[in-house]
Structures are given as structure tokens and as C-alpha cells.
Design brief:
- This protein is mostly beta strands and about 130 residues long.
- The protein has a single domain (about 1-125), classed as START domain (Alpha-D-Glucose-1,6-Bisphosphate, Chain A, domain 4).
- It has two helices and eight strands.
- An eight-stranded antiparallel beta sheet has the order 1-2-8-7-6-5-4-3.
- Strand 6 (about 80-85) and strand 7 form a beta hairpin.
- The longest helix has 9 residues, at about 25-30.
- It is globular, with a radius of gyration of 14 Å.
Length: about 130
């Protein structure tokens, strides 16, 4: 299910929900390792960690997509239920947050993706993540 709403950062946000048939701790470990993103996001070619040290708030990554590339950092990492990143300048402001909810041996993920500011100029293929 994908829902669109406005006003996240004065822009637009999309919510996508999915059930993963794995326990929350396994889903959190997989999602919080952003180098796994190309395994589940068809638009990504690669993601590499660019900062040193352990994974945590402030960890930075570089991702290569089919038509561009971006740098981003982790802004929220709360085991076992929340992971969030934001793009770094000069990219347009993007916030992506994963909210994980345990349902026994299954995990519901609510993936919120929001763009800041004016979005009238965006074409549908530019807001795919």
C-alpha cells in the first residue's frame, strides 16, 4: 500500500507498508545495513559506507542509482524499530524513515519517503525510491 501526503518539510511524502515474514531483529539488522539496499531496491546499483567507525547516527553513505548518485547520512537509529536517513547537499532534501512493528515472527515496515520544499517540478520517475 502506498499513500501520498503533503507538508513533510513543506513538500510531499509517500508511505509504503509491507509485511516481512521474519522477526523484527533480523529485519532491523538487514535494513540498517544500507549496503543491502540494492538487494531490495531495484533502482539502486550500489551503496557504500563512506565514514569510518561503527554504524550509528551520523554514519554516511554514497549510493549510485540508475540515473544519478547521492550522499546521505543516518539521522535516527533506534533498535529495534526506527531507522532514518537524509540526503546531504547539494542533493534535494530527502528524508527516508523505516518504522518497524513486530507482529510475532513477522515485521510490518512503514517506509516514509519525504521531499522538502517545492515539488511541482518533479516528474514521477524522479520520486521513485
Amino acid at each position: 500500500m502506498i499513500l501520498a501526503s503533503s507538508n513533510l518539510f513543506g513538500g510531499i511524502a509517500f508511505d509504503n507498508e509491507i509485511i516481512i515474514y521474519r522477526p523484527i531483529n533480523e529485519v532491523y539488522a538487514f535494513l540498517s545495513d544500507f549496503e543491502n539496499m540494492p538487494k531490495w531496491n531495484y533502482y539502486l546499483l550500489s551503496v557504500k559506507k563512506t565514514s569510518t567507525g561503527d554504524l550509528g547516527v551520523g554514519t554516511t553513505f554514497h549510493q549510485i542509482r540508475k540515473n544519478d548518485n547521492q550522499h546521505y547520512r543516518i539521522i535516527e537509529l533506534n533498535y529495534p524499530d526506527t531507522i532514518a536517513i537524509e540526503t546531504l547537499p547539494p542533493e534535494r532534501k530527502l528524508l527516508m524513515r523505516f518504522k518497524l512493528i513486530s507482529t510475532g515472527q513477522q515485521t510490518r515496515i512503514i517506509d516514509t519517503c519525504g521531499y522538502a520544499g517545492q515539488t511541482d517540478h518533479l516528474r514521477p520517475e524522479q520520486i521513485d525510491h
